[in-house]
Amino acid sequence: MDYAWYMGINTGKAAIFDLDGTLLDSMGVWDQVDIDFLGRRGIEVPDDYMTKVSAMQFRQIAEYTIARFGLEDTPEQLMAEWDEMARVAYSTVVEAKPHAVEYLHLLRTSGAKLAVATSLPPALRDPAMAHVGIGGLFDEVVSVDDAGDVSKESPDVYLLAAERLGVSPADCTVFEDLLVGIKAAKSVGMTVWAMNDDSSAGDWAEICEVSDGVLFDFSDAPEIL
């Protein structure tokens, strides 16, 4: 990505939020999808599988899963099956992290610009955001697909969110639960607050070291960015 766009831009503060595991208490949905999906094929989920795929985008996960388990499915077939299994959960079961909705309203009242930077495809993120009542609170919603199909190991999705908001990276605060995403956002000068989530438990010690702050729910979040 060409980073030159942000030179000289400074139009206010912005907050950029991950969805899965940060705003949404949803990572358990994917754990169950993995268990049920592989269980249909007589495969037990390996201990390292969920960690391996946590930072990948949707198609990468499908390709990795096919290669790892020698499946005959195409990536499109896997993604369609996962979509079918997850769509109901995201639109009816998933809830917001504690105090997340109130915090978003607080930031909007403060004048901060808000964006989502997620790996979730629209078919899952839109129903989930509507279900928990945050669908209309963001100025921009971007995904890794919008940022060249690269995973959150690269800062591109966060930079794209900042670009669309018209705010320089230095004036962005990112809320993220994945270590790779935290490191990526930090690498381009963004402030990062880490959300504690079971999916990142193995990385929590390092997350605490590299983040600017840590949260166990949004009652701990900074009122001023």
**Could you say how many structural domains there are in total?**
2
Ends apart, CA distance between termini: 26 Å
Compute the number of helices: 9
- Helix/sheet category: alpha/beta
The CATH topology name of the largest domain reads: Rossmann fold
> How big is the Rg?
17 Å
Low-confidence segments: 1-11
Summary of the model, kept short:
The protein is α/β, with parallel strands linked by helices. The protein has 2 domains: 3-26 and 95-220, HAD superfamily/HAD-like (Rossmann fold, 3-Layer(aba) Sandwich); 27-92, DNA polymerase, domain 1 (Orthogonal Bundle), CATH 1.10.150.
Describe this structure in words.
With 225 residues, this protein is of the alpha/beta class. The protein has two domains: 3-26 and 95-220, HAD superfamily/HAD-like (Rossmann fold), CATH 3.40.50.1000; 27-92, DNA polymerase, domain 1 (Orthogonal Bundle), CATH 1.10.150. The chain contains nine helices and eight strands. The protein has helices at 27-40, 49-53, 58-69, 75-92, 100-110, 122-132, 156-165, 179-187, 204-210, and strands at 14-17, 24-25, 95-96, 113-118, 140-143, 172-176, 191-195, 213-215. The protein has a six-stranded parallel beta sheet, sandwiched between helices. Strands 2-3 form a two-stranded antiparallel sheet. Strand 7, helix 9 and strand 8 form a beta-alpha-beta unit. The longest helix is centred in the middle third of the chain and has 18 residues, at 75-92. The two termini are 26 Å apart. Mean pLDDT is 91; it is low at 1-11. Pfam families: Hydrolase (PF00702). InterPro entries: HAD-like_sf, HAD-SF_hydro_IA, HAD_sf, PGP-like_dom2. This is Haloacid dehalogenase.
